[in-house]
Amino acid sequence: KAGVTQTPRYLIKTRGQQVTLSCSPISGHRSVSWYQQTPGQGLQFLFEYFSETQRNKGNFPGRFSGRQFSNSRSEMNVSTLELGDSALYLCASSFLGGVNYGYTFGSGTRLTVV
Amino acid sequence: QQQVKQSPQSLIVQKGGISIINCAYENTAFDYFPWYQQFPGKGPALLIAIRPDVSEKKEGRFTISFNKSAKQFSLHIMDSQPGDSATYFCAASYDNNNDMRFGAGTRLTVKP
After folding, report:
1. Three-state SS letters, A55-101
2. pLDDT (tens digit, 9 = 90+) per residue, A42-78?
3. Taking 60 as the threshold, does the pLDDT of residue B36 lie above it?
């Protein structure tokens, strides 16, 4: 059974650009959540999508957005990149949504903003 | 945003020893307390989790101890092995909410 797949694994972008990250959940999982991981702030929740609808949102500026497609794949977009957006972006999927049941993380996308 | 405090930041243990990592939380609404293990280049993987109606849960060499009145919980790794060397995160959530609050992480090194 394939795990959560995130692409690309590594990205280097210039300040002011925008970036799109992709997450393919485990087959059958309908919920996808995104997290930002940095050495300074640790793991922070960005948002969750379930059946193509954003169901929950963390405390991040509007430059961070996402969407989910009918096949449950999700994309995350960051516009007007800042140096502080350099981080490991992780997605996690689960069948019903929520962390209590089969919540599985991908290996992440390492974004570097220069 | 930090509602879960984790200590120590780093821990060095000899092979065969016991590793102990502690976490404290503030929000009494939290009802799910997982521990995650993360290796370099990988995402966090669920190790073990506990709910507040249980004071202890054991799975193999890993045990969570939970103290509801003190709002603290800890991970004990018995017979620590070099393969356990990783970063460990405690977390907390409520109402099955995806907005999990993570501790800052503990980098564990088990020396052979």
Report:
1. EEECCCCCCEEEEECCCCCEEEEECCCCHHHCEEEEEEEECCCCCCC
2. 999 999 999 999 998 999 999 999 999 999 999 999 9
3. yes
Region at A9 (left for phi over 0; alpha for psi -120 to 50; beta for the rest) = alpha
Report the residue of chain B nearest A104, measured CA to CA.
B45
Does the distance separating the beta carbons of A107 and B42 come in below 8 Å?
yes
Looking at chain B from residue 38 to 77, which residues have their Cβ under 8 Å from any Cβ of chain A?
41-46, 49
What is the DSSP-derived secondary structure letter of residue B109? E
Q: What is the pLDDT of residues B41-51, one digit of tens each?
A: 999 999 999 99
- Compute φ and ψ for B83, nearest 5 degrees: -65, -10
- H or E segment to which residue B89 belongs: strand B86-92
Inspect the interface and report whether the beta carbons of B1 and A43 lie closer than 8 Å. no
How far, in whole angstroms, is CA B17 from its chain's centroid? 17
Is it true that the peptide bond before A8 is cis, omega within 30 degrees of 0?
A: yes
Judged by a CB distance cut-off of 8 A, whether residue B35 touches chain A is no
Smallest CA–CA distance, residue A71 to chain B, in Å, is 20
CA distance to partner chain B, nearest, from residue A43 (Å): 6
> Do B20 and B73 form a contact (C-beta atoms < 8 A)?
no
Q: How far is B98 from chain A (nearest CA, A)?
A: 5
